[in-house]
Amino acid sequence: MRRVVITGAGTVNALGLDVPSTMEAMREGRCGISELNFRDVDRLSIKIGGQIHDWNTENRFNRQQIALYDRFTQFALTAAKEAIEQSGLVFNGDLSAKSGVILGTSGGGLTTQDDNYRMVYEEGKNRVHPFVVPKLMNNASCSHVSMEYNLKGPSFTVATACASSNHAMGQAFNMVRCGMATAMVTGGSESMLCFGGVKAWEGLRVMSKDACRPFSLNRNGMVQGEGAAVFVFEDYEHAKARGADILCEVIGFAMTSDASDIVMPSKQGAARAILGAITDAKLNRDEVGYINAHGTGTAANDKTECAAVADVLGHHADKVMISSTKSMHGHLIGGTGAVELLACIMALKDGVIAPTINYEEPDPECALDVVPNTARDAKVDVVLSNAFAFGGLNAVIALRKAA
Amino acid sequence: MPSEIKTKVIEIIAEQAVLEPSDVREDQSLDDLGIDSLGLVECIFAIEEGFDISVPFNANEPTQSDFDISSVASIITAVQSLIAEQSR
B60 vs A204: CB contact, 8 Å cut-off? Predict the structure, then answer.
């Protein structure tokens, strides 16, 4: 079994259009959630989200690219560029053949679907642009990243709702670990902030109209976000041999299925995934210093997640720090685990724990150290990142500080 | 009109509970009828569509809402008052 390290990171999200600005916002506990701005927003009852307002597609991509790149592909390509440039890798020859792309998404090209359904159903047009299918397909972002960087190894897209990114990164980790790949470009991307994307979520009655307040007694639901984060996972020996800057090490991964309910989370399913990641990484439970929570800010998730963490960690649960950065960037659904991995890297590399902002009132059912409102300096060696999806599919990643 | 509202609300709840409307009693709670959180959200959707009203309800804080879901009778009363308010 090979050791796996992260040698590049990139992102675009409501907190920042690259990693340094995103981490700065996390350190400052800044909120990236704002009034939504897109067509027909006045017909929504939920009008807030972690939207990227200063994107400016035309300055980033040319006309031919825009015809093929849905917003979620644009996000993925931009994040991948930052990550791959930081890694310093150039994919040629054997390295190209042994490196691939695995990205998570839930909605794929949802904006493209929304625009084109509107055109044929609402506006009665009978003809659509020839690239609608290659633009909206869930694997479009993965394929464009592979084409742009000559990545010819195992490549595909994972869709497990809110756990998509963690499942994607877990696959990438295991491929490098077992020697199937030398480097993997992995993470996730989501662009669900369009009329149809938010309208669908409204229907479930779990969205907050004012703020995302994970673990706070007065929390009243989740807030959507958008964006991407992409990482380069690399064989440690390969990275060491070329003198690469190592951000942190990926040491464990586990996934479970609740097999119980399509929306209500199960404590047992979450706990099995958390324990599975700890076991896979060959850790003692008390080595875990920080957990990046799934922490959606819904009544159901937060208390179930805290109970699962308490069950697995026992007495150590009182000492571990656990925070939800969704309070700042919103819930990026299929891209969320990837953006949240940045908070894990920040904890390991910079010794700064990102806070759970908007925390107003303690909830006895979430009685853990949720790092309320203000970032904290703390030295941690091992962190976990939780993702628990609708459909009961759970995926937890374990990371260690670079040695 | 109030009795028509009552009949229709009971029909909606009965359908979610997979019961005959005659088997639904007004003192029963949704829990008594075996309706879970997803069933509740579906009931509210059916009520909104059936009466062309908007029901203020957030699944994260079901008891905080003005829309009282504690029993079949309370739901009927809440629907009646929403219809009166929103038809103004």
Answer: no
Q: For residue A87, which of A17, A165, A187, A225 has the smallest C-alpha distance?
A: A187
pLDDT along chain B (88 residues), means of 10: 90 96 96 93 94 92 83 95 86
ipTM computed for the complex: 0.80
A161-205: pLDDT as tens digits: 999 999 999 999 999 999 999 999 999 999 999 999 999 999 999
Tokens encoding A163: 């756990």
Phi and psi, residue A377, nearest 5°: -80, 125
Buried b (16+ CB within 10 A) or exposed e, A92-126: eeebbebbbbbbbbbbbbbbbbbbbebbeeeeeee
Structural domains present in chain B: 2-86 (1.10.1200.10)
Say which of A203, A221, A300 has its CB closest to residue B58.
A221
> Do B58 and A263 count as a contact with CB atoms less than 8 A apart?
no
Least CB-CB distance to B60: which of A203, A220, A264? Answer: A220
**Averaged pLDDT of chain A:** 97
Task: List CB contacts (< 8 A) between A302 and chain B.
Answer: none
Q: Kindly list the structural domains of chain A, giving each domain's residue range(s) and its CATH number in brackets, ordered by start.
A: 4-241 (3.40.47.10), 251-400 (3.40.47.10)
Q: Is the minimum CB–CB distance between A44 and chain B shorter than 8 Å?
A: no
CA distance A58 to A81: 17
Cβ distance A205 to B57 less than 8 Å, yes or no, reads: yes
Q: Which residues from chain A sit within 8 angstroms of residue B58, using beta carbons?
A: 205-208, 220-221
- Name the least confident of A21-25, A396-400, B1-5, B45-49: B1-5
Alpha-carbon distance B34 to nearest alpha carbon in chain A (angstroms): 15
